[in-house]
Amino acid sequence: MNTATEPTGDLGLPAYPAARSARCPLDLPAEYAQWRLGDGLQKVRLWNGETAWVVTRHEDVKFVLSDQRISADTLRYPRMHPSAQQQVPAFPRMDDPEHARIRLMLTKDFTVKRMEAMRPQVRALVDRFLDEMTAEGDSADLVESFALPMPSLVISLLLGVPYEDHAFFQEHSVTINQPDVTPQDKGRASAELFGFLMELVRRKQREPGDDLISRLIAERVETGELKPEEVAMNGLVLLIAGHETTANMIGLGTLTLLEHPEQAAVVRDSDDPKVVAGAVEELLRYLSIAQDMIWRAAHEDLVIGGQEVKAGDIIAVNLPAANHDPSFMENAGVLDIGRNTRGHIAFGYGIHQCLGQNLARVELTEALPRLLRRLPGLRLAVPLEEVPFRGTMAAFGVHALPVTWWANPTT
Ligand code: HEM
C-alpha cells in the first residue's frame, strides 16, 4: 500500500482534466489506462492549482460512490471552490439523510412508468424538431436544431419552466458546468439562474399549473416540508441536469454512430425496441459523457484501492476510465451495440445515481433511431477534425455538429 500523501506544491503532477487526442477525440486520454495500474489512484493538479486524487478503476469508483466516509458535499472544502457560495444547498451536494429527504420527494416523478407514459409526447417533440430542421434545407447544426432544443423543451414542460427562456438557462448551464470558468463567474451564473427559478416559484404560488414545480409547492411547501427557496433549488438542479447531459448524449451519440455505419444501420433498421435500448446503453457506457462531473471529498482518513487518502482530500471520480476498465469489460475501447453492458456506471452509482436516467433513456431511444430513419443519408458536413468537441468540459459532447443529408445525384 502506498501511504505517502504526495508532497504539496509538486509541480510535476499531471494536469486534470487530461486532454483527448485531437486525431481520435472519441478515445479516452491515454493517461487513464496508465492511472488504472498500480494503486489505481492518481494524484493530479486541477485547473485552480489544487490537487486531487483521480479514481479510475471500476471497483474503486463503486467503492467511492457508496462509502459513507466519502462525502458529496465538496462545497465544505474551500480549496475546491475558493469563493463558491450557495444560497440554498442543492441535494446532489448533500449526504444522507438530508439528501434522501429531498430526493425521495422527487423520485415518483421520474419512475420508469411515469417516463414511459411520456414516450408519445417525447416522440412527437422529436418529430416536431426534425420536421422544422428538414424544412429549412438539407444541412444543419444538429446540436442547435435538434440535440439541445428537444431535451430542453421536455424538461421545461415537465418542470413548468417557460420554454421562451431557454437561451437564458442554456447559456447559464454552460457557464456553471465549465471547469475553467472562475468561481466568481460560476457563482454569478448560478445566482442569476436561482433568481429566475425563485421568480418562477413565486409566480406558481399565485398561478399553479400542471407541472412538477407546482406540485412541489402544493404538496410540500404548503405542508411546511420545503421552503420556496428549496423548490427553486430543486428546479434549478433538474433544469440543468435535465437538458445538457441528454443534449450531449444525442449529439455525441449521433456522431459516434455516423463513425460506425454498420452499427448505425442496425439502430436505423431494427424494429426491436430491445436492440435500440441495448445500443443506447452501449453508447452511454462507451461515451460516458459525465467525464468530469463527479467530485467527492474524504471526511476521514481511509484507503481507496491501495492508496491512503487523507481527510479533506478531494476525489475526482472518473466514470469514462471506470467504464473502460478491462477488468470490468473486455475490449472496452470498442463500440459494440450488441454487447451486454450490465453494470456500466454512466449514470453513476450509489445514492446519487442519476435521478433522470429513465427520462434520458426514453429521450435517447426515441431521438437516435428516429433521426437515422428520417434521414438515411445523414452524414457529417465537415471532416471529423473540424468538429468542435467539448474536450475538458464537465459533460463531454460537441459544441456543434454540422451535418447534411442531401441525396448525392451520382449515387
Ligand atoms: C445525477 C449522468 C440525464 C438529473 C447524475 C449522475 C450522473 C448523471 C453520472 C451522478 C452524479 C454524482 O454521483 O455526483 C447523466 C447522464 C444523462 C443524465 C449521462 C443523460 C444521458 C439526466 C436527466 C435528468 C438528470 C434527463 C433530469 C431530469 C439528475 C439529478 C442527479 C443526477 C437530479 C443528482 C441525483 C442525486 O444526487 O441524488 N446524472 N444524467 N439527469 N442526474 Fe443525471
From TrEMBL:
Report whether Heme shows up as a keyword of the record. Answer: yes
Q: What is this protein called?
A: Cytochrome P450
Q: Which family does it belong to?
A: Belongs to the cytochrome P450 family.
Gene3D superfamilies with a match to the protein in the record: Cytochrome P450
Q: Which UniProt keywords apply?
A: Heme, Iron, Metal-binding, Monooxygenase, Oxidoreductase
- The answer to whether keyword Nucleotidyltransferase applies is no
InterPro entries, per database record:
Cyt_P450 (IPR001128), Cyt_P450_B (IPR002397), Cyt_P450_CS (IPR017972), Cyt_P450_sf (IPR036396)
Q: Name one GO molecular function term.
A: oxidoreductase activity, acting on paired donors, with incorporation or reduction of molecular oxygen
CDD domains for the chain: CYP105-like
List the Pfam families.
p450
